[in-house]
Design goal:
The chain is mostly helical. The chain is built from five helices and no strands. The longest helix has 13 residues.
Length: about 70
Amino acid sequence: MSRQIVKQNVEKLLISNKAIEKLKENEIMNISQLCEKSKIELRKMGICFKDVRDIEMSLQLAGLNLKNSNN
């Protein structure tokens, strides 16, 4: 995992403002904290399926994955 990427704020990802607000409400401020979460955990936070998919794709473009992702 590139240290520069994971230290960046979640606002750097190409995801909706609503998803960013939900992440912040759950004290997920940087990309490394986000990578520690699974799709199920994100859904339980109230992030919609489309936004979870967008988060996953944005992370994959950076060479990263959510927890328990096999890609």
